[in-house]
Every structure is written in C-alpha cells, then in structure tokens.
Specification:
The structure is a single chain. This protein is α/β, with parallel strands linked by helices and about 475 residues long. It is about 40% helix and about 20% strand. It has 14 helices and 19 strands. The strands form five sheets. Strands 12-13-14-11-10-15-16 form a seven-stranded mixed sheet, with helices on both faces. A five-stranded parallel sheet has the order 7-6-5-8-9, sandwiched between helices. Helix 2 (about 45-60) packs antiparallel against helix 4 (about 75-100) and helix 2 (about 45-60) packs across helix 6.
C-alpha cells in the first residue's frame, strides 16, 4: 500500500508535489485537544486572525494561482479568479457570522431576558474537491474557524499541493497549528475521517454518490452536523429569444467553462424546436473558436484539460455509450493527444432517447433536448434527481415567472449562465445536489448551533394552581 501521495500536472504529466499520507487518529486527536482554546478566544480575535490570512493569501496570490493552474490544468486567468474568491471569502464570512449567528437579546415577559447565542460544534472535518481546490474548501474552513471550530482538512488526492498551501497560509496568519490540520490521503483516509468518533461534523463538497454514502453513514449520528454540497445535471433552457448569438454564448459559458468541471455546469440544453437548428449553429461557431491548452499558454486558452487521463477515458466512454443508445452526435468529443487529458467539447442530440441517463458527466459534454412547448421544457428540465442550478434564456418575463415557480433547483437564473454563483449569496441545491444546508453565505448556519437562554438576575417563581392550602 503506498505511503505517499503524488500530484501530477494534467497538462504535462510532470510531478508537481508529493507528501506522506497522514494519520487520521493523530490529526483528529490534535484538533480535539486544541479547539477549546481557540473557541475561548473572543470572536474579534478570530476574525482578526482570518483577516491576516486574507492578507497572506493576497501577498502570495501569484504563487497560489500558479499552483492551482498547474495542479488542476485550468487556465492561469481562471486560477487567478479562484485566488480572488479565497481572499474575498473572509469579509463575506465575517458579514455572514454577524448577520446569521450573532448574539441577540429577545423580548421576554416579567422582567426576564431571552438571549440567543451560538456555539461552535468542536472539530469539523472538511473534504475538498479537485475542481476548485482552494476556493471550495476555503468556503468551509474560514466560517468554521471564525465560529470557533477546529478543522481537519483532507484535500482531494488529485490536488494536495493547493490544499497544503492553503493550510500553510492559515498557520502563517496565526491560526494555531492544532486548529487547522492537514490530512493528506486518498479515499481510505477520507472514509476513516468521516467515520471517526472524534469529529463533530463533516463539511463535504464532491460527487453525489459519495455524498449519498455519507448521508447513510451519518443517519444514525444525529448529533453530528453534515453539510453536503454535491453535483448537478443542470438544465439551460432557451426559449423565445431573438438574439441567438448571445444565447449561444451563455450556453457555451455554462457548459464548457472549466472544461465542464463545475458542479453548476450546464449539462443539458433544452431548446424550443423552432430555434434549435439555428442556435446549435451559433454554438458550433463559438466552439470552433475555443482554444484548449495548457495553463500558461499564449494566447490564453478558454479551457484546459480535465483533471487526469482516467477522467478523460471515462468521459470518452460515456459519450460513446450515449451514441450507442441512439444519441446523434453534433460535435464529437475529441482528444487531440491520447497521452494527455485535453478534450475538445462534445455535443449530442439526445431528444430521441427513450431513457436519458440522469448522471453528472463532469466534463465538456453537452446534451441537447428539443421541445415543442414550454411546459414540456420545464418538465424536461425537472427530469432529474439533481437540483442544483437551472437557467432560462428568454426575453419574456412571464416565461421566467413560470420557470422560477416550477423549476426545482437551488439556483435559478435568467439570461445568465448556470454557473458563476456569488459567495455573497447562499449556494446549494436539493435532491441529489445537497441536503438543504447551502454553503457560501449560509455556511455560517452549519458552523455553529443556536443556544437560547431565558435569564433573570434573581430567582422568582410561583405555582398558582394545583396546590393544597396551608
């Protein structure tokens, strides 16, 4: 059994980083022994520490962006936007903590006081994904630390270098080493961490099958908080719009940004039959111009490779399987270099499939479904167990009102891509996309629990009924 995790650059295959696999028992025990002192600090102290962390990241922004780009394969320009999100998360989390978990006085009768305060859970485990190896785990770690928790963070085994750098910056800013622990490892370490009695909760970002397995595992542990941020089979609906070129841009941004490796990526284009051919033509013209390349290439690529060769192989097999089921290829998923995981976008018309697989194809594959009336389009958009993101491209407000009222998703957009959600708003979905614990601005909600106290300066009580006379 290997005792080292090695990270390779998807674009080149070169080794980027290696580190020893960590010990779950040690990391949890260290966090367990350290969190109470951190929780006892004033919240102003914890906030100031995290503000220093934002400054450390800002000072090292180029180094972090370069590491993210090399480790994930995403273009450097996109990695820089991820670093900006890491920095911005601190101020957002401070505002969210104040608004959603602050101390309050409530009205109470007979001269007593009602107080609402919030307590940290203790030790929270964070399991991070590979597609945003800094931004997404950071979105759990920062609010957890502000609330007074200690964190054991296991980055994806595919992107450990970015995770290790994040933890280094937190410690440089003054977060005690015992309160932010880095667990290097693979699936076995992730399972052991999730099952450990020493954690008080788990904050997860990743695939639906893994999230569902965690949900089953935690079903008999109601005392532990579980926040699941999972994937999506997201629809973008194009209906009754005169500007098909703009609609095509929104579809391409939704489907192929980050090489389709976003949980909010548009997986299904649902389009009015009358517009379909013209819209697809516009999409193809844009796809023809897309530059696929390595992170530091010039001119800058629109999208890089997928995370590794295994993922590229699986996406190729999925595309072929859809064709074998009867899907009509509009644009074949191309792999220019069989030794590297670069893919050019693939598009299929799946309208005539008797059964369309409800799976998240985490890569640059777009499935097209043609509909002849708007109610059928909404029904098709809802034809999924997922419920993360959905978008309508239309210039008819009445259609958007119907879409918003009937669509089943946690993010519902109008004339915007399915992706690009703001950290200043809650982020999450329903069904197989999450367990009703949205992250981003609402992460404060699962990082501390409310405690209500009825208080008075002196004991005063009377029983007015049911006592015998003296």
């Amino acid at each position: 059994m290997p005792d080292t995790i090695i990270s390779h650059e998807p674009a080149t295959g070169a080794e980027l980083w290696r580190g020893a696999i960590g010990d779950v028992e040690t990391e949890v025990a260290t966090a367990r022994a350290s969190w109470a002192d951190w929780a006892a600090k004033p919240v102003t102290f914890r906030i100031e520490t995290l503000r220093r962390y934002a400054n450390v990241v800002r000072a090292n922004a180029d180094t972090l962006a370069d590491t993210i780009a090399r480790e994930t394969g995403k273009p450097l320009w996109e990695a820089k936007t991820e670093v900006e999100s890491v920095v911005a998360k601190v101020d957002i989390s401070v505002s969210a903590y104040s608004e959603r978990t602050s101390q309050r006085r409530l009205d109470s009768p007979m001269g007593s006081r009602m107080a609402l305060r919030h307590k940290p859970h203790g030790v929270l485990a964070v399991l991070g994904p590979y597609n945003f190896p800094a931004h997404l785990p950071n979105g759990h770690i920062v609010p957890a630390l502000i609330a007074g928790n200690a964190v054991v963070f296991k980055p994806s085994e595919k992107t450990p270098a970015s995770g290790a750098m994040l933890v280094g910056f937190l410690r440089e800013a003054g977060v005690p080493e015992g309160c932010v622990r880095l667990l290097i490892g693979g699936p076995d370490e992730g399972k052991a961490l999730a099952a450990h009695d020493g954690i008080d909760g788990l904050l997860f970002t990743g695939s639906a099958p893994t999230g569902i397995a965690l949900n089953r595992q935690f079903a008999t542990r109601p005392e532990k908080i579980l926040a699941l941020e999972m994937g999506g089979n997201n629809p973008i609906v194009v209906w009754d719009t005169p500007d098909l070129q703009q609609a095509a841009v929104l579809v391409v941004q939704s489907a192929f940004t980050s090489a389709g490796q976003r949980c909010t990526a548009g997986r299904r284009l649902i389009v009015d039959e009358k517009l379909a051919d013209a819209l697809i033509g516009e999409i193809e013209r844009i796809v023809d111009r897309i530059i696929v390349g390595a992170p530091h290439d010039e001119p800058a690529p629109f999208m890089g490779p997928v995370i590794d060769n295994h993922t590229a192989d699986m996406l190729g097999e999925s595309f072929l399987e859809l064709m074998l089921r009867g899907a009509k290829p509009i644009r074949h998923l191309q792999r220019p270099d069989p030794d590297r995981p670069f893919l050019r976008p693939g598009i299929l018309d799946v309208t005539m499939l008797d059964e369309r697989p409800d799976i998240e194809l985490f890569g640059p594959i777009l499935q097209v479904v043609r509909c002849d009336h708007f109610d059928a389009a909404i029904a098709e958009a809802n034809n999924t167990r997922y419920g993360l993101s959905a978008s309508l491209v239309s210039q008819e407000p009445d259609l958007y009102n119907r879409f918003w009222a009937n669509i089943r998703a946690g993010i519902v957009n109008w004339n915007k891509p399915t992706n690009g959600a703001s950290s200043s708003a809650p982020f999450g979905g329903v069904g197989w996309s999450g367990n009703h614990r949205p992250s981003a601005y609402y992460a404060a909600d699962y990082c501390a629990y409310p405690v209500v106290s009825n208080e008075a300066d002196a004991a005063r009580a009377a029983i007015g009924v049911g006592l015998r006379d003296i």
